[in-house]
Amino acid sequence: MNNNYKMQLNLKNPLVFFDLETTGVNIVKDRIIEISFVKVYPNGKEERKTRRINPEMHIPEESTAIHGIKDEDVKDCPTFKSIAKSLAAQLEGCDLAGYNSNRFDIPLLAEEFLRADVDIDLNKRRFVDVQTIFHKKEQRTLAAAYKFYCEKDLDNAHTAEGDTMATYEVLKAQLDRYTDLQNDINFLSHYSSFNNNVDFAGRMIYNDKGEEVINFGKYKGQKVVDVLKNDPSYYAWIMNGDFPLNTKKMLTEIKLRGFNSK
Question: What is the pTM assigned to this prediction?
Answer without folding.
Answer: 0.79
